[in-house]
Amino acid sequence: MDTQFIVSLLIILATFALYIGIALYNTARATSDFYVAGRGVPPIFNGMAIGADWMSAASFIGMAGTIMLLGYDGLAYIMGWTGGYLFLTLLLAPQLRKYGRWTVPEFIGDRFNSKPALVLAAACTIIISFTYSIGQLSGSGVVIGRLFEIDAKIGTMLGVVLIAFYAAFGGMKGITWTQVAQYIILIIAYLIPVIFMSLQLTNNPLPWLSYGEIISQMGELDRELGISEYFAPFTNSTKWQFLALMFTLMAGTAGLPHVIVRFYTVTTMKAARWSGAWALIFIGLLYFSAPAYAAFSRFILMTQVAGSQIANLPAWTKSWVDTGKLQVADQNGDGILQWNELIIANDIVVMATPEIANLGVFVIGLVAAGAMAAALSTAGGLMISISSSFAHDIYYRVINPQATERQRLVVARISIVIATLLAGVIALDPPGAITQIVAWAFAIATGTFFPALVLGVWWKRGNAQGIIAGLLVGLAVTLGYIFAAKYGGFTIFGIIDTGAGVFGATAAFATNIIVSLATPAPPQKLQDEVINLRYPEQMIYKDGDVYMKD
Predict the structure, then answer these.
(1) For residue 146, what is the domain's CATH number?
(2) pTM of the predicted model, to two decimals?
(3) For residues 376 and 139, what is the distance between their CA atoms, to the nearest angstrom?
């Protein structure tokens, strides 16, 4: 075994032991622990947990690579994913916390007094979370496959076993504190390489300030090679696709059930707002670093790898070629690797960068641990969402309302194991790149939950018929456009499958409003509850007036 393998393995095993230990120490013994961590998580730690839950394999592994390959056009991911938290924190999170339910489907079912709406919302949660989890498990396969130099498929199944174990034991309580540890690990692992690269290339330890210098140099290299300039806008997609993708990611963020439920784990509306504020700070550390990561990696590849003799390529290239994520082909037969002969999957850029920049075995192992933390933290949260939708919203609220606490926990844990295994099987042969699969989940959330929650919180006239019709139409339009664009080549204004949410949301808003207005208004009690959500917790709306609570 080489030193790199041993160091990486020890770091990975140490972090795995930490996660399992935290989950066992915080084992959920009551349903409130399992679903909402007992509603006692401090805002700053909830912000860290939200950050880890949010910064998935798509963010840690895929985003910098996507920006590296797409240049300016890749910035839609950063603007969409960060802007969405403003939507969520300002428009929805405090109000949903005040309503006091445990899940997003439960809010929809009780807000509209409709069990069919509850079941439909639970089904949407399972579809969104399941799609998202495929991307996370695929990411864990990339990391474990490279670490052990085995097929990524075997790595995926190893990730499945770990996630099923600690998510089933700890529930939301265990997941919360596991995610705090995972955030600390992943952000350190992400920042150290980009800081060292900044020092190597610019003698400045602050990559956020120094990478502009590298981008200027890359512009000159691009012109010499006769390729599209890295920072030229809309060279890889249309302006409409850029805007559609950005909106889809923003609105999808505000509608993701596994993110929203994190705001249910705090004590008050005020704590929910502060959780969002802390989350933006913690997430911003990674997202502001991703463009620098992309620029530095691309510059090193262009200046130190491209133009080299193929027979004398760095040793790291062989390891990644073996994973199937890197392709090197001497197309013109001159024995020299040209830039256009290097095909690198965006999913491996962050993972390969410590080797590309020769940062040492400890940093390589740390990045592997950080990538695993990102994939596992989000996957754990997604499995809790799937479990709560089935065990709480469908099994307990609809099928067996007399179920004991023990029965509910058993069903919840079994559903986590089954969901993880099913997602793992699909992740063995994922239908797209990590960021693409994740974008589909956001598109579905945009077309279903974003209109339902915005109207549910801010429009008292909305009724059960409207919400059901809106969810069905939004889901159908979004899925239909994804399949038509990906497999049929159908697009509108050049908007591809990752921007499908803009059509689903438009259709869902229109359907919800039209059907609600065409059918009887909801009872006055439900309308008063909606208005009541807009006031602080110490105030209550009743009979047309606002009162202080006793």
Answers:
(1) 1.20.1730.10
(2) 0.80
(3) 9
